[in-house]
Amino acid sequence: MTASDQAPATAGAAPPWARRPANLASAVAAELVARIVGGAHPPGSPLPTEPVLCETFSVSRTVVREAVKMLQEKGLVQVRQGSGTTVTQPALWNLLDELVLAATIGQEDGLAALDDLVVTRRLLESDMAFVAARLADDEIVGRLRALVDRMDDLVDDHVAYAEHDRAFHDLVMQTSGNRIARAVVRALESQVVNTVRYMGHPYREQCVASNRGHRRIYETIAAHRPEQASEAMFTHITEAWLVRREGRGDATRLAR
Questions:
Q1: Distance between start and end Cα atoms, the chain
Q2: Are 142 and 97 within 8 A, CB to CB?
Q3: What is the 3-state secondary structure (H, E, C) of 227-246?
Q4: Do 189 and 121 contact (CB within 8 A), yes or no?
Q5: 119 near 254, Cβ under 8 Å?
Q6: Max Cα–Cα distance, the chain, nearest Å
Q7: What is the pLDDT of residues 147-163, one digit of tens each?
Q8: CA–centroid distance for 57 within its chain
Q9: Contact (CB, 8 A) for 97 and 72
Q10: CA–CA separation, 189 vs 170, rounded Å?
Q11: 72, 107, 184, 247 — which has fewest CB within 10 A?
């Protein structure tokens, strides 16, 4: 980092981070993503000018320009010569971007983002279960059965249960051969798998009910019944989310 990247902070002003990050541009971009998604810079409004951002984050213009370029790549801002930088409408934001998705889920008051995540996951995994039921060989069927049987033994250990739960779903996705759909689901889940808002507070009865859904999926795949496997996955994902969501608001969005 050069001396030009260490612009002095305004006298008496606290720095935006207690410990100066190694990658300043990425850190500034991450903070601006959180501010934009959180509404500090509403859609249609201009982003603060370069001098203001330099002073705010105590960085050089080079760092600010790199950070703004990152925001542009994520679809959060539009840069026009002579017009400055404007925050775009949420419809243009790249919600598959790790920072944008995490900020959206973390900032949103309601559960709309999580509902959309579940609906998307349900659509993709139902299709992958359909294909997996056509392609699964004896080895895959045996591995699915082993995971389901093991989860029956782990209903009192929600951490270990969750690990096997993810392994079960991932094996179904791998078996389908749809690498893009699997990557999308994994990217979405990676942002929420450790959050209480998505995972809830697992308890024994919830794990027992969840694994009944897994067993139904396994049985239909083992019997090579694609339509039933797809339906079983659809039902399982829906019901598991509604149990976790219970008491936290209207769930009509999931009826789509």
A1: 51
A2: no
A3: HHHHHHHHHHHHHHHHHHHC
A4: yes
A5: yes
A6: 71
A7: 999 999 999 998 999 99
A8: 27
A9: no
A10: 11
A11: 247
- Beta partners for 84? 80
Q: Which two tokens stand for residue 55?
A: 């002073």
Q: What's the token pair of residue 196?
A: 């209480």
pTM (2 d.p.): 0.75
* 206 closest CA partner among 232, 236, 231, 228: 236
Of 27-31, 132-136, 190-194, 233-237, which range is least confident? 190-194
Helical residues (DSSP H) of the chain, grouped into ranges: 24-37, 50-57, 61-73, 98-107, 112-135, 138-153, 158-176, 179-190, 196-199, 204-222, 226-245
Q: How far apart are CA 247 and CA 220, in angstroms?
A: 32
Could you tell me the CA-to-CA distances from 86 to 33, 44, 45, 146, 155 in Å, in that order? 13, 6, 6, 53, 50
Q: What is the pLDDT of residue 247?
A: 46
CB within 8 Å of 230: residues ≥ 6 apart: 126, 127, 129, 130, 133
Angle of helix 138-153 relative to helix 158-176, nearest 10 degrees, comes to 170
Q: Which residues contact 232 (CB under 8 A, 6 or more apart)?
A: 129, 213, 216, 217, 219, 220
